[in-house]
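User: Show me a protein chain along with its predicted structure.
Assistant: Here is one chain, sequence first, then structure tokens.
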Amino acid sequence: MSRGKPPFQQTQQRLKIPKEIKAQSAAALQQREELEKDPKKKKLLERYESLSLTEKIFVRVRPDKAFFLALPQDQRYKWDATVVRSKFIAPGKKMPVPTKVAQGVGIELNYNSVMVGMFRFRYEYIQQGAGFMLQATQGGSILFAGMAESWAFQGVRGGTEITVTRTYVPRFKLLKKRAVAYQEKFFKSTLEGIKKYIETNAQ
């Protein structure tokens, strides 16, 4: 990255909150229904505004190898310093835990940071062309009410360009600055980790 430019491209957009996350707060859902009827209360919708970080990294590895090394997120604890545990999860009670990635499979990531402490999100895998997406369905922390990641792999001369976008929903407006600072540091660590992991294990 060149000097003088922000380390990440940050945009503000409206994120579709999964039903499971909405269900965690009946009061929040009621507020949203009221806002849809009363435009004057539009400011309350800021709670559901999301922020996104997008970054491109280059690895000297073929796209297919880069994709298959990044895809098994149950192994994420091996390369992401912000993740202390990662595992597949069963889709329901008394159902077997998946052993490989597939459309709709659940994954649980447990994060730890001196800024926030330990928290977790449960995600669903969603196939997206030459990439994949992780959409949070459960979990959160004092800073975040929702989170999602998309990963895209494009072959370029000499290797692969990986575009990663992380979208997150700050839980409280008063803690928004802290949430942004955490995610910028958090995201950078994730990207450094996957780049090193792919280039080391692609041999």
